[in-house]
Amino acid sequence: MASTLFRHIQTQPLLLYPSAFFRRKNFAFYCTVKNTTQSQTASRENQRSPQIKVSPQKQSKNLDKLTKDYEAIIGIETHVQLSTLTKAFCGCPYNYGAPPNSSICPICMGLPGALPVLNSKVIEFAVRLGLALNCKLSLNSKFDRKQYFYPDLPKGYQISQFDVPIATGGYIDLDLPVEFGGGHRKFGITRVHMEEDAGKLLHSGNGSYSQVDLNRAGVPLLEIVSEPDMRNGIEAAEYAAELQRVVRYLGVSNGNMQEGSLRCDVNVSIRPNGQPEFGTKVEIKNLNSFSSINRAIDFEISRQVHLHSQGQGDSIVQETRLWEEGSQKTVSMRKKEGLSDYRYFPEPDLPEVIITKDYVDSIQNSLPELPEMKRRRYESMGLSMQDVLFLANDISVADFFDATIAKGADVKLATNWIMGDIAAYMKNEKVSINEIKLTPQELAELIASIKGGTISGKIGKEILFELIAKGGTVKGLIKEKDLVQIVDPAEIEKLVDVVLSENPKQLEQYRAGKTKLQGYFAGQVMKVSKGKANPALLNKILVEKLNAKS
Amino acid sequence: MGSRALLLLKLPAPARPLSSFNNRKLSSASELLSRYNCYRTRRCFTKATYGSSLEPPNLPRLAETARISLTPDEVEEFAPKIRQVIDWFGQLQAVDLSSVDPAIRADTEGENLRDDIPQPYEKREAAVAAIPSYEEPYIKVPKVLNKE
Amino acid sequence: MLSTLQPPRSLSRFPFRLSSIKPRHITFAVSSSSSLPVATSAVTDQSLQSSQILTIRHSLLSRHLTATQLVESYLTRLRLTEPQLKCFLHISDNVLKQAQELDDKINKGEDVGPLAGVLVGVKDNICTSDMPSTGGSRILENYRAPYDATAVRRMKEKGAIVVGKTNLDEFGMGSTTEGSAFQVTSNPWDVSRVPGGSSGGSAAAVSARQCVVSLGSDTGGSVRQPASFCGVVGLKPTYGRVSRFGLMAYASSLDVIGCFGTSVADTGILLHAISGHDRYDATSSIREVPNFTPQFTSANLVESRPLKGLRVGIIRETLDDGVDNGVKSAISCAASHLEELGCTVTEVSLPSFSLGLPAYYILASSESSSNLSRYDGVRYGKQAVADELNMLYGDSRAQGFGPEVKMRILMGTYALSAGYYDAYYKRAQQVRTLIQKSFKAALDANDILISPAAPSAAYKIGEKKNDPLAMYAGDIMTVNVNLAGLPALVLPCGFVEEGPAGLPVGVQMIGAAFDEATLLKVGHIFEQTLQGFKFVPPMVADGAS
């Protein structure tokens, strides 16, 4: 069933999709879900997702109204693949995209007699992330075996942490994007624990057999379980985006959803407003981008609301559904009777994970400034929320910005340059801020040069392009191209005189009343001065001369 | 000689009545589990049935869980033996263990961690040679009908 | 609550009858079945009398014997006895070549390792890259491990020659080797009887002098009980002393690799060669391993009471009604012998002792149900024909595993199931704590503890096959030691009057964690001063008909 979608793609790198407009069967509906999250800030009034005005015919006002009667409860389980050099329990290196089964050994293959030995970096990364998520760290945690049979799980069990995870009871702060109404949120983190990844299972074309690649088996993961605090797709998507920011800031993972180094499964349930009991929750998998998180949740909420409102609440069963990107809906994967029993028991091959308070403190002290802190700092510098979110979203951009203002550049100007021309260049050429040739030093220099009057704003823009593409120094370029602004009135006078004398007709016309020609003259002077004339001064002198009666 | 050995399998005298077993306080791990399990779809909540007799082993279901295709003869042969052993295991229920910590293993010393330094395995070919169904570069398995 | 020991009682008040033991005087001649030069006159040094390994070293280095001659004599005996005994699942075809290489080295005056020329049997659940490793199971028939177990590697680095892989109960589950998928090993003392298990092949091979020493594994007594049944020395080290990397896991928190030898000294020398921290085993201990060899060469045997001051506790719970009288007498004699050597022997009670057996079986079957999940026919081993994945798993495992293994997996799966974990597994872990504490208390008050290694001597093949509980009952003497992770040494101390030539009985000595040195010292002196017994099976002593 084709569904009609209207997407509003942001120019910002956040790439969030607002609630989509669906057509399904005989009705089209627009999803809004009442927001009842805790810690609402004053900007709450603007909560509602942007209205997408669409022409289509049937809009089910009934369903729209209905969703307002329900509260959605959303929780997210995120798996973060750590960027350690080696796997969790053996010395095999891990490289995304390596030839299948090229990085394996007896341990990660689950050969008879093989034993796991923990990579110390995994503990370090886990502590870092736990601290960044404001969790309480368990100084004494352990591993457990989670048992099930599947071809990508060589030992027939996964080494994970069950009842004593390394970190519990934290929270994450984030700011919703301005275009979605903005607002600060704080979502709880139930736990963070260490575990190993399974291999990859690929299904053959005709489905009669499958293929196993064990390169990924044994790669370390951190599983982050959120409290069920999110209330709609935007909040969930932003939570995931913030986790991505955090893991990138910390350097524990590249947090790439397409590569699979950041994976999210969401749990969605609804309950009528005011009902204390939770409804049946449904798990959704196969979410490969933040936008699919957003859309899948909103879809699922509508699905459940619709069923519930028709009195078919019972047909909402606890199950796992897959998000289908093509058809933009969740489909039942498989209805299961009962739940899986993983027969957890403590891993006898691994000693307890014991960390000292000193160790934790030393990691705490070495944490970089996290996104939340950065946002608050930028806010306090007087930047608008939109600017704050843009700058703080990518740690490289933030670092560039910080370096630029550290050289004394004006905050607002630096922001404008970065968000404007520089961002545009990056987008067009598809490069990151680390790849452009412009350095923060030079950006600061540029800003200072313009501010100090050495060059005009227009000239500034021109050399910016060259600086970005080819590098070089501001001072160098100014000198090389002779770009210094002309601010000497006498010199400008001379130029104006030249232009006026070369354009007697226009002068006559001007003096006869065509005052619009001032622009023409100004342009000519600019041309003659190769753009270096200071515009303000130029116009002042020009006007004087034009209006002089001689 | 065999029968004499069986004399060694005596049950200890029950230290306390079963009521103390029932009133055992939930450990904090169990509490954490119960809160955590509220919101987990994949894991069955461990609701231990204290005191009352646990359900006897359901052999066909256990065999399915353990991925062993038992023949009906085997089921018939194993069931009483397994039942007998499980009943014998049950003698631990009668012991008062309320103040005893579980021991995962004997004390070992040191953390025994690895550094994050790559060590590619040199004998990959030998390991791959042992794979029964290998279609370069993948391990081949038949299709899956049910995922656990 | 755990340290209420009974007041000391002297042995004369033990309430069991002493049956009359007739010491057998059997002289042991080296290589009686072939006329080889025997270095008899030079072997007067005490160390050489007590250690075959040291004797071999001396003979080779002094050129009294070549490695080739030595190895040939063992291989001859092996070939003669193997059809009856069936100790080996695989025999190396590379042995003579290694012996010749060793001779070359010696002739060139090059250094050779401490185990040079020593033929070793390796239990088939320990991985070797140049020979199959089956674990005694069809599911690994013809499996070639791509790597050597750490213990094997270390042994080979010191010059040992692996003569072959020995028979065992499948994956270590059993006490007789009747659980092997391939063959049943016979006891060299009476081929109608079991050698014990699960390391029955390793024990019998050493007993029959098919090899000098051998490696086994001990999860619940699988080195100690066969040592007792076969009349050889079996050493179970402390958990974590020897790396488990390469040992096919049965119960990870209980498994250890152990040593068999014809003397305490040999097991100690072998243990030293394979012990020590291994970066591939996170449960291996970083503790230094003392060199045991000096104490075998310098033990004071002349002094009248060389073990004066040593406190020995005899475990009361191991001398109850379920134990054969013959065994009780042998232990009693052992206790007397220790007293003669100067020890103080008192009775010790270990509370919770009898809980150890069900706790052990819960833990072992639970852990093994998990450890054996990897045997699914996908990455190695026997693969059944199936066009659906779960059928592949189910059939490969059904066809590959024997009945005992299947039952243990099913029991373990049950014990770990949701709702049952607290009732079984967790309780068993708690019992383990109790047992650890009770041993610790007893070993604070005593230097070593002693008990039988098994309630009886070797029983007939087929006798216990169908009654699991009867089979499990035989482990009562040994499992608690595994639960506590302690070291234990079993050495022959007497006979019972059964079988054509009597059946040997071993005494188990248990030490404090990582205190193998004390065990070896006591065991060595005990062995060297024990009069009137020669623990060589008739088929070997009589030249193997």
Automatic annotation (TrEMBL), chain A:
Domain of life: Eukaryota
Protein name in the entry: Uncharacterized protein
UniProtKB/TrEMBL annotation, chain B:
Keywords: ATP-binding, Chloroplast, Ligase, Mitochondrion, Nucleotide-binding, Plastid, Protein biosynthesis
GO biological process: glutaminyl-tRNAGln biosynthesis via transamidation; mitochondrial translation; regulation of translational fidelity
Keyword Acyltransferase: no
Major enzyme class: ligase
Function: Allows the formation of correctly charged Gln-tRNA(Gln) through the transamidation of misacylated Glu-tRNA(Gln) in chloroplasts and mitochondria. The reaction takes place in the presence of glutamine and ATP through an activated gamma-phospho-Glu-tRNA(Gln).
Assembly and oligomerization: Subunit of the heterotrimeric GatCAB amidotransferase (AdT) complex, composed of A, B and C subunits.
Protein name: Glutamyl-tRNA(Gln) amidotransferase subunit C, chloroplastic/mitochondrial
Biological source species: Manihot esculenta
Gene: GATC
From TrEMBL, chain C:
Catalytic activity: L-glutamyl-tRNA(Gln) + L-glutamine + ATP + H2O = L-glutaminyl-tRNA(Gln) + L-glutamate + ADP + phosphate + H(+)
Name of encoding gene: GATA
Matching SUPFAM superfamilies: Amidase signature (AS) enzymes
InterPro entries the UniProt entry points to: Amidase, Amidase_CS, Amidase_dom, AS_sf, GatA
Gene3D superfamilies referenced in this protein's UniProt entry, alphabetically: Amidase signature (AS) domain (3.90.1300.10)
Record's miscellaneous remark: This protein may be expected to contain an N-terminal transit peptide but none has been predicted.
EC number: 6.3.5.7
Catalytic residues as annotated in Swiss-Prot or TrEMBL: K123, S198, S222
GO CC annotations on file: chloroplast stroma; glutamyl-tRNA(Gln) amidotransferase complex; mitochondrion
PANTHER family assigned: GLUTAMYL-TRNA(GLN) AMIDOTRANSFERASE SUBUNIT A, MITOCHONDRIAL, TRANSAMIDASE
Name listed for the protein in its UniProt record: Glutamyl-tRNA(Gln) amidotransferase subunit A, chloroplastic/mitochondrial
BP terms from Gene Ontology: glutaminyl-tRNAGln biosynthesis via transamidation; mitochondrial translation
GO molecular function, one term: glutaminyl-tRNA synthase (glutamine-hydrolyzing) activity
Keyword Protein biosynthesis recorded: yes
The keyword Protease appears for this protein: no
Record keywords: ATP-binding, Chloroplast, Ligase, Mitochondrion, Nucleotide-binding, Plastid, Protein biosynthesis
Subunit structure: Subunit of the heterotrimeric GatCAB amidotransferase (AdT) complex, composed of A, B and C subunits.
Record organism: Manihot esculenta
Location of the Amidase domain: 70-520
Protein task: Allows the formation of correctly charged Gln-tRNA(Gln) through the transamidation of misacylated Glu-tRNA(Gln) in chloroplasts and mitochondria. The reaction takes place in the presence of glutamine and ATP through an activated gamma-phospho-Glu-tRNA(Gln).
